[in-house]
Amino acid sequence: MKFIIRLHAEITIKSKGVRKRYGKVLVNNLKNILKRVEVDDSAPIKVRWLWDRIEVDVASQEPLIAEQISDELQRIPGIAWFSRSHELTLNSTSEADFKPILEQVLSCWAERLRHRSFAVRVKRKGTHGFRSMDLERYIGGGVLQEVAGTRVALKQPDIELRIEVDNETVRVFGDKQHGLGGFPLPTQETVVSLLSGGFDSSVASFQLIRRGARTHFCFFNLGGDRHETGVRQTAYYLWQTYASSHPLKFISIDFAPVVEEILSQVDNGLMGVVLKRQMLRTAQIVAQRINASALVTGEALGQVSSQTLSNLSVIDEAVDTLVLRPLITMDKQEIINLAERIGTADIARSMPEYCGVISIKPTVKAQRDAVLDAEAKLDPELLERVVRAANVEDVRHIGEATDAQVHPVSTVDAVEQGEVIIDIRSLDEQEAKPLKHLPEGVSQHNIPFFKLATAFADLDPEKHYLLYCEKGVMSKLQALYLQEQGYNNVGVYQPRRER
C-alpha cells in the first residue's frame, strides 16, 4: 500500500532551500515515528521525499497496518493532508485506457457511494491525448451506471473522487485525511513551556509543538505527588502523540518554598502577580541552562486577574526572555474544545487550579513600585536553590519509569472469570473504539480517568479490577496511584494487538 503526503501550505511557499530542508526533516521524523508500526522486518516501511509530496510505501496490505499508519500521520506536525493511493500505469493516451481507472475507483468507493452525491476531480501533469474533463466525465458516468442511487453534485458533494494523472502514472486516492499542519520538529527554536496539566498550558504546549518548536516542559509542583503524576502524564501524552520524533525534557520544581515565602511576605492583593513573576524568573533560569529561546504560558487575556494587560505587562518585566502566549485571544470554551480535540481534556479535568487560591482579593492593575517593594522582602537566592533541587527527566522515560514503579501491580493480557475491566478512556474514545472480545463472565465498567480516583472507593472491595486504556500509560499511572492509596485489588489490562 502507498500513502501520499502533502506538506503544509506555509512550507510550500518558502524558498527552495528552506522547503527542501523542512521536507528532509519531515521525512526523518516520519521514518522515526513509523518504526512503531508493526510490519515485517523483511519489508520495512519506505519514506521518500519527492518535492511536491512525500510517499510512504508499505509492502503489507493489512487493514490494521493501514489504520496504524493513518493514526500516526494525523499527529505529525508539518503534514497538511494525506491519502491512500492506488496506482495504475496509463498504457495509452485515449479513452480506451480509462476502464482500469474506473474499476479501481469502484473497488475503492462503490460501497460508500451508494445513495450519495459525488464529484470527480482530476489533476493532470504531462501531455495526454485527453483532457481532465474527459476523464472526469467517463468516471462520473461509470459510477452513475454501476452504483445505485448516486448523483453528481459538483459544488457540495458528499464524496469527492480524486484522481491524479502524473505522466504515465495514475493515482486513485482514498479518503483525504487532514494532518496537523504547522512545521516539522524541530525546524523552529527551542522553548520551555510552563506546564500545569490544566486545559490552558497543555493546549499552549501543543500549539508550539505544532509550529515546529522543540518544547520542553517546566512544572511547578504546588499540589504534591498526585498533581505531579497527572502533569507527568500530560507531558508524556503530548510527547508520545505529537512530538515522539525527538526527545523532550520534563523539569519538575518543588515550588512550595516559594509559595510559602510569598504567603508570609507579600500583600494578599499582589500574591498572584508576584507568584507569576517568580515562576517566570525560575523558568528563565531553566531556559538558560537548556539553551531555550523563549518561555510559553497558557495565559489568555482577561481570563483571571493576573491576566489583564496591566498585570501581564508587570509580570513580563520580571524576565528578559521572550514570553509567548499562543492562547492570548482565545476564550475558555475555545481552549477546552481544542483540548478535547488533541486529547488532553480528560487529564486537565482532574487538575485543581492551585494557582487560583493564592489571592482572595487580587488586584487587576498591580503597581510596579508596590510589586518591587513586596519582592524586596523575598530571598533572592531561593529560586536558584529550587532549580538546583529540580528533577530533570527525559519525557521518553516517563513511560519506562511508570513500568518500573508499577511492577507490584499486575499487568496482564488476558482476563480471568470474575475480574472486572474498567475502561478509563474518555467517553468519545470508548465510543470510537469499544473494547471487544471479553471472555464470558467478565464485566466491564466505563469510568473516565478524571472520575476514577473518587469512583474507585465506591466499588466492591472484594472484586479484582483491571484498568484499560489505549496506550497503557494512563492505566499504569492510575493503577500506581490507587496502589499508593492502599488499594491492592487493582491491575492493568493490556490486550495483545490483533493482526
UniProtKB/TrEMBL annotation:
Catalytic residues (positions): 469
Residue ranges annotated for the THUMP domain, each copy included: 67-176
Keyword Flavoprotein in record: no
An annotated Gene Ontology molecular function: tRNA-uracil-4 sulfurtransferase activity
Localization, UniProt: Cytoplasm
Annotated catalysed reactions: [ThiI sulfur-carrier protein]-S-sulfanyl-L-cysteine + a uridine in tRNA + 2 reduced [2Fe-2S]-[ferredoxin] + ATP + H(+) = [ThiI sulfur-carrier protein]-L-cysteine + a 4-thiouridine in tRNA + 2 oxidized [2Fe-2S]-[ferredoxin] + AMP + diphosphate; [ThiS sulfur-carrier protein]-C-terminal Gly-Gly-AMP + S-sulfanyl-L-cysteinyl-[cysteine desulfurase] + AH2 = [ThiS sulfur-carrier protein]-C-terminal-Gly-aminoethanethioate + L-cysteinyl-[cysteine desulfurase] + A + AMP + 2 H(+)
Top-level taxon: Bacteria
One GO cellular component term noted in the UniProt record for this chain: cytosol
Gene3D superfamilies to which the protein is assigned, alphabetical: 3.30.2130.30, HUPs (3.40.50.620), Rhodanese-like domain (3.40.250.10)
Binding-site list for ATP: 194-195, 276, 298, 307
Enzyme class, first EC level, given as a word: transferase
Keyword list, A-Z: ATP-binding, Cytoplasm, Disulfide bond, Nucleotide-binding, Redox-active center, RNA-binding, Thiamine biosynthesis, Transferase, tRNA-binding
The protein's annotated pathway: Cofactor biosynthesis; thiamine diphosphate biosynthesis
EC number(s) recorded for this UniProt protein: 2.8.1.4
Coiled coil: none
InterPro entries linked to this entry: Rhodanese-like_dom, Rhodanese-like_dom_sf, Rossmann-like_a/b/a_fold, ThiI_AANH, ThiI_fer, ThiI_N, THII_Thiazole_biosynth_dom, THUMP_dom
Gene Ontology annotations of biological process type: thiamine biosynthetic process; thiamine diphosphate biosynthetic process; thiazole biosynthetic process; tRNA 4-thiouridine biosynthesis
Limits of the Rhodanese domain: 415-493
Entry keyword RNA-binding: yes
Pfam families in the record: Rhodanese (PF00581), ThiI (PF02568), ThiI_fer (PF22025), THUMP (PF02926)
Record CDD domains: PPase_ThiI, RHOD, THUMP_ThiI
SUPFAM superfamilies per the UniProt record, alphabetical: Adenine nucleotide alpha hydrolases-like (SSF52402), Rhodanese/Cell cycle control phosphatase (SSF52821), THUMP domain-like (SSF143437)
Function summary: Catalyzes the ATP-dependent transfer of a sulfur to tRNA to produce 4-thiouridine in position 8 of tRNAs, which functions as a near-UV photosensor. Also catalyzes the transfer of sulfur to the sulfur carrier protein ThiS, forming ThiS-thiocarboxylate. This is a step in the synthesis of thiazole, in the thiamine biosynthesis pathway. The sulfur is donated as persulfide by IscS.
Family: Belongs to the ThiI family.
HAMAP family to which the protein is assigned, alphabetical: ThiI
Protein name in UniProt: tRNA sulfurtransferase
Taxonomic source organism: Pseudidiomarina terrestris
